[in-house]
Amino acid sequence: MSEFPPLGPGKWEFPGEAGDDTKRPVALFICDLQPRFNAVANFDRVVMTGAKMVKAAKILKMGIVVSEQRPEVFGATVPGLGLDDLGLDHNIVKFSKGKFSMVVPEVEGVIAPADARLSVVIVGIEAHICVLQTALDLLRRQVEVYVLADGVSSINKEEVPIALERIRQAGGVVTTSESFLFQVMRDSSRPEFREFAKLVKDTKGETQETLKALLPW
């Protein structure tokens, strides 16, 4: 496992849902986007959202945590996410697991130094199993959790809205990739906004089609 420096001051931060001026470091969690899971409903659309979030993470300097469920069986993370384009200086961890939740001991070591002030945004599969259990485990640790409705799915798509409602009831925030990213950006006067706006424009068509595919409910 790669060393993942503690998420603290100096990384991209935003106020989150607290409604005050508390700044929280932000991390992108990518859950089990592996080729053997391509039977998941609209798998390619989930990967598209994941790829957009990876590009945004590069612009906004968000740390990235990537899990692989038994990669010796289900394969490595799909290359379409663009993780190899991030560069050596980007904070990224990739780890294998048998547990359904991404909150394994190594990840707890990332969370703890953030002093319970971390915000995590989750994309991946399956919504009602690994994504749900990851969200619940993070919430129990006082981490602020965002789950992207246009970035999660399950083999049985009917499971998704039930899982998302359970996450809401537990205190998580269900949102979309574009809404979340604008919330993090906050201000068009920031120097990163020009590159950020180009990303939004370049992915507009994909985003629209993904919303139609993943949010029919």
TrEMBL record:
Isochorismatase-like domain mapped to chain residues: 27-178
Pfam family, any one: Isochorismatase
Xref: Gene3D superfamilies: Isochorismatase-like
InterPro entries the record matches: Isochorismatase-like_dom, Isochorismatase-like_sf, Isochorismatase_domain
Family according to the record: Belongs to the isochorismatase family.
Protein name (record): Isochorismatase-like domain-containing protein
UniProt organism field: Hydnum rufescens UP504
Top-level taxonomy: Eukaryota, Fungi, Dikarya, Basidiomycota, Agaricomycotina
